[in-house]
Amino acid sequence: MYTWCRARNYFRLWAYLYVNWYKPGQWELWARSANAREIPVLKTTMIVESHWRKIKHDYLHRFNRPRIDLVIWVLTFRVIPNALDRMDAIRNRDHRKASASWRKAFKKQWKQLRDREIDPKSIQKYHTNPAMWTCACDAFLSSRFLICKHIIYCYDPITDPIVFFSRIRRQRVSPFWIDKQLALRPEYRKFRTITDMNADSDSESDIDPEALEEDELAVMDDETPAAIDVERFVSVMQSAMDIFHEQRAMGNMKFVEIFIAANARNQTLVEEIWRRKNQRTMPMTWAQNKHPATMYYR
Questions:
Q1: Fewest Cβ atoms nearer than 10 Å: which of 95, 157, 194, 293?
Q2: What share of the chain is helix, strand, coil (3-state, %, to 5)?
Q3: In this predicted model, what pLDDT tens digit does every residue of 179-194 receive, in sequence order?
Q4: CA triple 286-287-291, angle to 5 deg
């Protein structure tokens, strides 16, 4: 990041990043490489983004650009008390009052993998170790929850799914999932190791936010090539519309039809901007726009 900022003369950006993210004491709070013995539960700034999204759309959805005193009041008397109650319920495993947001998605993915057919020979092919909860298959390496059909196949069927999916705990060290109902099949108990893995996972293991599905890298504005010929683009677009009007006046409807179909994305952009101008609620930070330019519209 330092090299990237220096190459573009972004000295103020690097000063901000260093003070808030990279200096000693801040780096350990978020960096994936800060602890070599554990895998990260939280990634980059997704928790901050998730909190902002929740505040804007759960508490400030009726206000566009609210006053700072209103925001402070909402944070003090609504957001923070509700967040504390929810965290206490999750820490105390009071699942009737609150449950970690990842559990529903975990349950769905577990059931999908459980119902898939598997060749027992693939256990050896992918060097699956169910006791250590590791596998070399592509599904495991890209899994949000570090599970795959090979590992699930090595365990006996769950006897009480309701209790299992509400009580299973995630660890930041191998084995990554622990529960009393996770019992290896007899033929795979040879993988059981005598290594003492700390089974007391942190309470933060329940805080695996849904924002995980959203930890994708966005292309920054500054990475756009600087040498963009705007004037030429405007001239070309105007010429294109002149040609369109000319062919339309001549009755060349086939040309008109193909031209409109080829510019469908531009129509999408205009429609999304119209909706954004007319909406009465605060727009989402990362809205699901179909056109990539919509999110940069001011």
A1: 194
A2: 55, 5, 45
A3: 998 888 888 877 664 4
A4: 110
